[in-house]
Amino acid sequence: MCGRFGVGGIKFSQMVSNELSCDFIATENMDLRPTQAVSVVVNADGKLQQLDAKWGIKPDWAKKIIIYAQSETAAEKKTFKQAMASRRCLVPCLGWYEWRDEGGPRKQKYYFSHQEGRPIYMGGIWFPSEVPKVVTITTQPYEVCEPYHHRMPYLVSHDDARHWITGQGISEKQVPLRIIQAAIK
């Protein structure tokens, strides 16, 4: 589920800066993978600001890296509870990838992006350390995403950004998505 996503360069960074009213400069990476550097937006003294982090955590008890938490249970799970209460973030991206078995020798890759080419904001939580870590939040899929995967990123509209980060309720407005078949690399 959403083990890869794309982050744009200058134009993307400018759109995020304008939509969220904060300085944001992300390094372009259209195939961002777990453990790689990712720029997120956090609340710092009541203002939104960029935080550069690594995607994924590895608690002592875990056998592998954890890159996401389920929205339905994250606030109750010991690993995520404190971060859900006080360290929420937004993970701006251009889109994310899913793979679907269509009977061929390899799974087919699909790219999910905003219908209008705008940034998508995935809900996330962050963990302080020498290099901060981030985990993305997942949820039940929109109807349009259901044929591709049983989970999807928890998407936050830019209008709800501040509400998500501060732990307030957000609207249930769906982000309009475009799905395209992507080249397999």
From TrEMBL:
Database matches in InterPro entries: SRAP, SRAP-like
Record key words, sorted: Covalent protein-DNA linkage, DNA damage, DNA-binding, Hydrolase, Lyase, Protease
EC number(s) given by UniProt: 3.4.-.-
Any matching Pfam family: SRAP
GO molecular function annotation: hydrolase activity
PANTHER family tied to this protein: ABASIC SITE PROCESSING PROTEIN HMCES, DC12-RELATED
Family to which the UniProt record says this protein belongs: Belongs to the SOS response-associated peptidase family.
Name of the protein described by the UniProt record: Abasic site processing protein
Species: Photobacterium rosenbergii
